[in-house]
Design a protein that fits this description.
Blueprint: H1 3-13, H2 36-45, E1 49-50, H3 59-66, E2 73-75, E3 84-85, H4 92-96, E4 100-104, E5 108-109, E6 114-118, H5 119-122, H6 128-131, E7 134-139, E8 144-145, H7 148-154, H8 157-160, E9 164-167, E10 172-174, E11 180-182, E12 189-194
């Protein structure tokens, strides 16, 4: 028996009995406010914005109003056509030519104004959410969780995704003089559309 096998065998033989040593209950930590208002305040603080519906406006009309010069609008959702489907994007280079990417987030986090995206939403082209100029994220108010702790304990996406990213607004950078530039390395804007 090799040293490795010997160590693993000892570990296995000394493993605690799960019936005797039960894991503790998970405590609920932090502020439990899951409100849309809290999410929107946090999103704005991170440089994101809500794409406000005007009257009975559709998502297509709102995107056209917000991004009138957009030529390539890539849709990763079945209920919005755009000019390009995510399934037809075959390379990061093609994704980089996208003016606006429209995607649906499975959940958002109120405390940070973040939305979660994974390979399930991005059709396995994970770079698409970072290479587009602007990102429009469809989010349901019922899918807001309070904080990172509740997101991790309540949302299965954290445990099933091979890739996951929390986005809280456009990318940003600041120099030593404190000049903040938004949209420096990734999307120039992140807008949330409430469904």
């Amino acid at each position: 028996m090799s040293s490795r096998e010997m160590i693993l065998a000892r570990l296995r033989s000394n493993r605690p009995d799960p019936d005797v040593y039960l894991l503790p209950d998970i405590a609920i930590l932090g502020d439990q406010d899951r409100s849309r208002a809290r999410f929107e305040t946090s999103l704005a603080g991170m440089g994101g914005a809500v794409l406000e519906r005007q009257g009975e406006e559709t998502l297509a009309a709102a995107v056209a109003r917000r991004f009138p010069d957009a030529k390539i609008i890539c849709s990763a959702v079945p209920d919005y056509e755009g000019t390009l489907r995510i399934e037809d994007v075959t390379s990061p280079q093609q994704a980089a030519e996208t003016d606006v990417m429209v995607v649906r987030a499975p959940f958002g986090i109120a405390e940070t104004g973040s939305v979660f995206l994974s390979e399930a939403q991005l059709n396995h082209l994970n770079s698409a959410a970072h290479l587009a100029q602007h990102l429009v994220v469809i989010l349901s108010e019922q899918n807001i969780t309070a904080n990172m702790h509740t997101a991790y304990t309540e949302r299965q996406e954290f445990h099933t995704a091979h890739y996951g990213v929390l986005m809280s607004g456009p990318s940003a950078t600041a120099d030593i003089q404190g000049v903040l530039i938004r949209g420096a390395q990734g999307v120039r804007s992140l807008s949330v559309w409430w469904e």
